[in-house]
Write a structure and sequence with these properties.
Layout (H helix, E strand, L loop, with lengths): L1 E9 L5 E10 L4 E5 L6 H8 L7 E6 L2 E2 L8 H5 L2 E5 L10 H10 L5 H14 L15 H13 L5 E5 L7 H16 L3 E5 L3 H6 L3 E6 L2 E6 L9
Parallel strand pairs: 3-8, 3-9, 6-7, 7-8
Antiparallel strand pairs: 1-2, 1-4, 4-5, 9-10
């Protein structure tokens, strides 16, 4: 699903955020990415969907070497992955339904298929009854559930989440985790960068720990391993 070989990332200011990363993530895995602030987690995540391009090395996602694709092809590549952000990134003037449907409208799917898929993912996140509401009429947890629904409406093979529970209260956080695990149980690879020690230590999955741009720990059913 995702293979990184000898990946380096040096920013113009001299900061090295990836320092010789080699890793493979297989189809259907659930992976936490952990580490202290500034360790390189976000860069690691962003390189997977070509938000950042490595200075050196190879990254293959869904069989595509994304270090070599043209900028004009990036949008097409991203149709095969879902991305969930900490700050939701919903379009404020569109309803819940329209926010999710937009991801299908841009690839010119039929209205019938769009409705079917949108209602299916709203059902998964238990928000069908709020389809006509605007984002600012929802709680933070509800907005994140809509963000997740939008990320999976294209039936991606991998979902990448960057601190998806960072702005949520503990109860809502567990609700969001149940959704991610349900998505994963259906065969979708889930990669989640998180600072939430309780999640990592309670809902056991593979843990990749990053420090100074290097993978320092890679464990099946690992633990968070940092004091908060």
């Amino acid at each position: 699903m995702i293979v990184m070989k000898d990946v380096y990332k040096r920013y113009p200011n001299g900061v090295v955020a990836a320092n010789g990363i080699d890793v493979q993530i297989d189809q259907g895995e659930f992976v936490y990415v952990v580490g202290t602030s500034g360790a390189g987690k976000s860069t690691f995540i962003k390189m997977m969907y070509r938000e950042e391009k490595p200075t050196k090395g190879t990254i293959v996602v869904n069989g595509i070497d994304i270090t070599k694709i043209k900028n004009s092809k990036i949008a097409h590549f991203r149709r095969g992955i879902g991305v969930v952000f900490q700050d939701f990134k919903l379009l404020p003037k569109l309803t819940v339904y329209e926010n999710i449907a937009y991801a299908l409208e841009v690839i010119e799917e039929s209205p019938k298929l769009i409705k079917k898929r949108v209602m299916a993912v709203l059902d998964l996140v238990n928000l069908k009854h709020k389809a006509r509401m605007l984002p600012d009429e929802l709680s933070g947890g509800e907005q994140q559930r809509i963000s997740i629904a939008r990320s999976i409406v294209n039936s991606p093979r991998v979902v990448i989440a960057d601190e998806p529970t960072g702005n949520l209260d503990p109860e809502t956080t567990w609700d969001i985790m149940k959704i991610f695990e349900e998505i994963n149980s259906r065969g979708t690879t889930v990669i989640m960068a998180t600072h939430n020690k309780d999640i990592v230590n309670t809902r056991k999955h593979r843990v990749i720990a990053i420090e100074e741009g290097m993978i320092v720990r890679d464990e099946q059913r690992g633990e968070y391993g940092y004091e908060i």
